[in-house]
Design goal:
- This protein folds into two domains: about 130 residues, 2-Layer Sandwich (Nucleotidyltransferase, domain 5); about 170 residues, ATPase, nucleotide binding domain (Nucleotidyltransferase, domain 5).
- α6 packs across α7.
- The protein is an alpha/beta fold.
- The mean pLDDT is about 95.
- The two termini are about 20 Å apart.
- The chain is globular and about 55 Å long.
- A five-stranded mixed sheet has the order 3-2-1-4-7, with helices on both faces. Strands 10-9-8-11-12 form a five-stranded mixed sheet, sandwiched between helices.
- Bound molecules: zinc ion (ZN).
Length: about 325
């Protein structure tokens, strides 16, 4: 019997994934539905409940002791509600209460998706063994999370480490969040592609204008593509250096689709970091690629649920 089994939910704008995960981070059962992101809130919740029903219907379910949810944000762990930007039907939606009801009253731990990925990288990936780490996802958006003093630091509402919306260009372009010149506004995949196109980059015969296509062109030496990645790297470096200067991290882990660009991103990123991370205590900061794959959100949500259970046991004096 798995006495350390938890349920995990990874809720994003395109899919709702669920799993039963054991204490070693192994996924024993998985379920998935597309997110009906343009539908009303109850329709989205029904998709979550279908995923949960596949888990609760398993013979393994009897051993599950808690539920971890990593959700697209903003989330509010203090009220158990979520308001994902890309799921308009959910605004201050009481996700924790609804999932608790669907799982027969199990304790539910809610964190943002960036925090969940951080939990996964710290438990099993590139931040393993590091007591102070920043983990980032650079893809359609830029998300992140922090490990401080050896523990995940979700913050009071579950959003701490939201590095994508640190401003690194004071009079920069308006960002969807309401601020200006955010890291995400410069370094996300769509913004890398947008800048390359605006500066005269020509896509190949297949017409692919994704950041991955810009990365391919940069690898082939296209100077506009190279420059667009260099600008993104500069924004990321400034955000990472600011974070390191504030809270003393010793590693920054970069994942997500843009993170997969490899040297096209990491070479200018490491160079730009030298410009911004200047004080003695941040000069040893390393930047490394993420190691967790597409299951990072599920594994991280499970880690949060397992950690909470340990915390509850400690409080109860167990
Ligand atoms: Zn922003």
């Amino acid at each position: 019997m798995h006495t350390d089994l938890v349920a995990a939910l990874d809720i994003g704008g395109t899919k709702i994934a669920g799993a039963l995960v054991d204490g070693h981070g192994r996924i024993l059962l998985r379920a998935q539905r597309p997110t009906p992101a343009r539908e009303d809130g109850e329709t989205v919740m029904r998709a979550v409940e279908e995923v949960v029903a596949e888990l609760t219907g398993s013979p393994l379910w009897g051993s599950a002791s808690a539920v971890g949810i990593g959700s697209a944000g903003p989330v509010d762990a203090s009220t158990g509600t979520v308001s994902p930007v890309n799921v308009p039907g959910w605004r201050d939606y009481p996700l924790v209460d609804r999932v608790r009801a669907a799982t027969g009253g199990l304790p539910v731990e809610l964190i943002g998706d960036g925090v969940a990925i951080t939990a996964a990288e710290h438990w099993q990936g590139a931040a393993r063994g590091h007591d102070n780490a920043l983990c980032m996802v650079v893809s359609t958006g830029v998300g992140g999370g922090l490990v401080l003093n050896g523990r995940l630091h979700p913050g009071p509402t579950g959003n701490a480490g939201h590095i994508g919306h640190i401003s690194v260009e004071l009079d920069g372009e308006p960002c969807a969040c309401g601020s200006r010149g955010c890291v995400e506004r410069i370094a996300s995949g769509p913004n890398i592609a947008r800048r390359a196109l605006a500066n005269g980059w020509q896509p190949g015969p297949d017409g692919d204008t994704s950041a991955a296509a810009v990365a391919e062109a940069a690898r082939a030496g296209d100077p506009v593509a190279v420059a667009s990645f260099a600008r993104a790297a500069q924004a990321l470096a400034a955000g990472i250096a600011a974070t390191a200067t504030l809270v003393e991290i010793d590693v920054a882990v970069i994942g997500g689709g843009v993170g997969k660009a490899g040297d096209v991103l990491f070479t200018p990123l490491r160079a730009a970091l030298k410009t911004y991370a200047t004080l003695s205590f941040v000069q040893r900061l390393e930047i490394v690629p993420a190691q967790m794959g597409t299951d990072a959100g599920l594994v991280g949500a499970a880690a949060a649920a397992l950690t909470r259970r340990v915390g509850d046991a400690a409080e109860a004096g167990v």
